[in-house]
């Protein structure tokens, strides 16, 4: 993948947040650094970054969210405010139980919990 100032800015924006932004959110931020960038350019660069394993894409309720955290982690999705949060959970016991009880060979785990976040609970 060739160097591109636009791609570099997009990557930095995605990696600088834990909010799992959408392409529109990223577009608004990158325009502050690269005013003439188009939304299509943002989408193309996001796809290249995902294809090259520099970021992850996660679809929740039909919306694609981008994740700059490449380490092993799980997610919590707030069904009230539509925010996707990182969870640092060890799933060893969960995976071991499935392996032992069902005999499956598990190579990875991608868990997403859904509910209402603390902030939304306090607002109610």
Fill in the keyword field for this structure.
single chain; 124 residues; alpha+beta; Arc Repressor Mutant, subunit A; Dna Ligase, domain 1; 2 domains; three-stranded mixed beta sheet; two-stranded antiparallel sheet; 5 strands; globular
Short description, anyone?
Helices cover 42% and strands 19% of the residues. With 124 residues, the protein is of the alpha+beta class.
Structural features, described:
This protein is of the alpha+beta class. It has two domains: 5-67, Orthogonal Bundle (Arc Repressor Mutant, subunit A); 74-123, Ferric-uptake regulator, C-terminal dimerisarion domain (Dna Ligase, domain 1). 42% of the residues lie in helices and 19% in strands. It has helices at residues 5-15, 23-33, 39-51, 92-102, 118-123, and strands at residues 56-60, 63-67, 74-78, 84-87, 112-115. A three-stranded mixed sheet has the order 4-3-5, with no helix packed on it. A two-stranded antiparallel ribbon has the order 1-2. Helix 2 crosses helix 3. The chain starts with a helix and ends with a helix. The relative contact order is 0.14. The mean pLDDT is 92.
């Amino acid at each position: 993948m060739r160097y591109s100032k636009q791609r570099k800015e997009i990557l930095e924006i995605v990696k600088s947040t834990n909010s799992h932004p959408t392409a529109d959110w990223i577009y608004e931020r990158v325009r502050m650094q690269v005013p003439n960038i188009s939304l299509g350019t943002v989408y193309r660069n996001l796809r290249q970054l995902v294809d090259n394993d520099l970021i992850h894409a996660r679809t929740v309720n039909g919306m694609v969210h981008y994740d700059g955290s490449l380490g092993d982690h799980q997610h919590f999705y707030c069904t009230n405010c539509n925010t996707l949060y990182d969870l640092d959970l060890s799933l060893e016991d969960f995976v071991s139980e499935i392996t032992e009880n069902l005999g499956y060979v598990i190579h990875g785990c991608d868990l997403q919990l859904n509910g209402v976040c603390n902030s939304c609970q306090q607002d109610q």
